[in-house]
From TrEMBL:
The keyword Nuclease belongs to this UniProt entry's keyword annotation: no
InterPro entries reported in the protein's UniProt record: Ribosomal_uS2, Ribosomal_uS2_bac/mit/plastid, Ribosomal_uS2_flav_dom_sf
SUPFAM superfamilies: Ribosomal protein S2
Protein role: Required for mitoribosome formation and stability, and mitochondrial translation.
A single Gene Ontology CC term: mitochondrial inner membrane
Transmembrane segments annotated in the record for this chain: none
GO-annotated molecular function: structural constituent of ribosome
Gene Ontology BP, a term: translation
Family: Belongs to the universal ribosomal protein uS2 family.
Top-rank taxon: Eukaryota
Protein name, per record: Small ribosomal subunit protein uS2m
Record key words, sorted: Mitochondrion, Ribonucleoprotein, Ribosomal protein
Annotated compartments: Mitochondrion
Amino acid sequence: MRSFIFGSRLGHLIIDLDQTAELLRQALNFTAHIAFRDGIILFIAKNPQISYIVEKTAKECKEFAHTRSWKLGTFSNAEFEFGAVTRLPDLCIFLTTKESVTHQHIAVAHAAKMCIPTIGIVDTNCNPNLITYPVPGNDDSPCAIELYCRLFKDAIRRGKICKKLLESVDNQ
């Protein structure tokens, strides 16, 4: 995370917001493109304090959320886990990339192994190397998570609306 840190003050690391703004813009643009192409988007967060926000956002977008413990083989052995041929998500959005204070969420590595693009809100204690679109920011505050959820929800809605408009023009 060194490249995303602006400095420190009173023992707290300060994230460079210029980089955050640019990387968040790229992540939102990619999210809108996935939604435009009718891709499956999976919101992932383990923190119980924000699980309601994440699940509500996914439901409003008509997408999917996973806020519980991650089972090994969810991506890599999906047919066996679910008993049917399963389509994997086209994008995983990690609102928290940590499963606990010391461990990275195991789904980050699983998504990387399965070549599923990822967007992750990465705090100063996270490792952004396996995230396709890292967004440096605070992943601890429910207010920050609400902001990220609202931004991703708007990007998904805009992508889907653009798809509908394009289809209606093509049909005329």
